[in-house]
Specification:
1 helix; three-stranded antiparallel sheet; 121 residues
Amino acid sequence: VEVLGDSGMSNFIEGDYIKYYVRLASLDKDVNYKVTQYQTSTLGQDGSQIADSYDYLNDTIFVAENMDDLIFFLNQVLENGDFQNFIIILGMEFNCEDNCSTDLDEFNVISFNKIRHTTIS
């Protein structure tokens, strides 16, 4: 996995990353909104051998970027459903840039291990 700041990188545009996201959707998934996202920037940098780089992501907190938007999104997915139920979608988007003809980007284990929903008042 190559990221900005890796040593020996000459053929580099945006690098490799994982974008984690949370979406809310109506039951039929016709209406859905991205509530928040997090994109890695130093995941695997130089094989995790330098300071402030990592090959893991522990206890990352996802918080809605804007509370007014979150209220709007919830209203929309509920209004376009049965007014009681909606779907929470946890997702990951992978970007694996080919930096050379032999570039092999390998992610050994990528998962959501624990999910906790917390209400903040």
